[in-house]
Amino acid sequence: MGTSGIIAGADALRINLVAAVDPSMPRASGITTYVISLARELSLLGQQVRVLGLGSGGGTIPNVEFIPVTGHIRNSAEFVWALARFLRRRREIDGIVHAQRPDDLLAFHFRCEFLPKVVTLHGVHGVHVAARRGPAAAALYRLAERYSLRRTDAILCVSPATLNHFQHCYPHLAGRLRMIPAGIDTRIFKVQNTQAARRLLGFPEDGKLIAFVGRFEPEKRPDWVLDEFRSLRRSHSDVRLVMIGEGSMAGALRGKLSTSGDPVSLQSSVPQDVLARYLGASDLLVVASRHEGLPTVALEAMACGTPVVAWPVGILPDIVKSRVNGFIAHSEHEFRALIEEALYETSWMREQCGASVAMFGWEKIAPAILEVYREISS
Predict the structure, then answer these.
(1) Which single residue of 1, 130, 157, 247 could bond 163 by disulfide (Cβ 3.0 to 4.6 Å)?
(2) Which tens digits make up the pLDDT trace of 77-120?
(3) Of 152-156, 252-256, 324-328, the least confident
């Protein structure tokens, strides 16, 4: 997408958002949503914004330039190499570089040494690398992380837990670390009529509906959610489940459902407005992963008036208030009990649930990030 129509202020900054995202695709991942939403909000604030990502060149972000550095990737390392090749071909990159992983900045440290650089840490990524790729890959990632963070001007952490972890690991970088949570689009994610949303989506208006939204990967535990749903169905025949996402476990999940006859709707990634409708139609969102930076979808669900049951991950222990907008579980037994309590024993006030996360609107978060940009570029 070109930059025609961009109205930049006299003090506008050039901001390069770097992430392996494709703006033309439906968004399920939190990082994709973060980058596209931040790009839009910065543009509305009069900044010159460019996204270096994936795809064929299409995009859906008004007044934001999108440059694909490669068509597609199989893993994160391929994106790092694609960025290096891109920077060898193009030398006119200027302004601030804002990445979503420390290793995505490696090529910029070598090729654009003097540009101001920012990274957002969406949790402790090394934990996921170790779980999915083993100790050797995790050790290599930690080397890249250490090298990159030492050369990065500002390090944004999306939750207090993430901030505390990196303060402990890199005490010499304490002056560059700051906590700025991810934002949510409160124009899309807002309290709505549950029955009307269900009619639009084709769900029965009565009964209970549980939602799971996230990547179908082991660390998100979608198979555990499905098993817990089946257990709940033994005593509550009126409950249904909708699972939204994509990933390596999608085939196995579909295989389980094809022969079970369970009332489960399995959906691929959907656009944000459709996701808001699913969340508004649901009685509960389940966040089953035990390691998260900030599960943005939990905030989006609460903004729609839908409570959550989750582990104490990211910023959720500070946000989730029992019987106001959800429950925090500390054991699998408690998690199971709280799902049932949330569905059948608690009366939720959807407006109160939505109001509890109003402070996370992008209209508040984006200016805070812009202030960081101005600080490191002055």
Answers:
(1) 157
(2) 899 999 999 999 876 789 999 999 999 999 999 999 999 999 99
(3) 252-256
Same fold for the domain at 14-183+361-377 and the one at 194-359? Answer: yes
Whole-angstrom CA distances from 107 to 36, 82, 87, 208, 214 are: 22, 9, 7, 49, 29
Alpha-carbon gap, residue 260 to 69, rounded angstroms: 43
* β-strand pairing of 96-99 with 14-18: parallel
CA distance 279 to 6: 33
CA distances to 82, 105, 358 from 145, in Å: 18, 9, 33
Domain ranges of the chain: 14-183+361-377, 194-359
Please give the CATH architecture assigned to the domain spanning 14-183+361-377: 3-Layer(aba) Sandwich (3.40)
User: Is the confidence at residue 9, as pLDDT, over 60?
Assistant: no
The fold of 194-359 is Rossmann fold (3.40.50)
Q: Where are the beta strands (DSSP E) in 174-317?
A: 177-179, 208-213, 239-244, 264-267, 284-287, 308-310
The sign of the CA dihedral 301, 306, 312, 318 is positive
Secondary structure of residue 47 in the 3-state scheme:
coil
Name the phi and psi angles at 197, rounded to 5.
-65, -40
Read off the pTM: 0.85
Asked if residue 324 lies in contact with residue 352, where contact means CB atoms within 8 angstroms, the answer is yes
> What tokens appear for 74 in the block?
């199989």
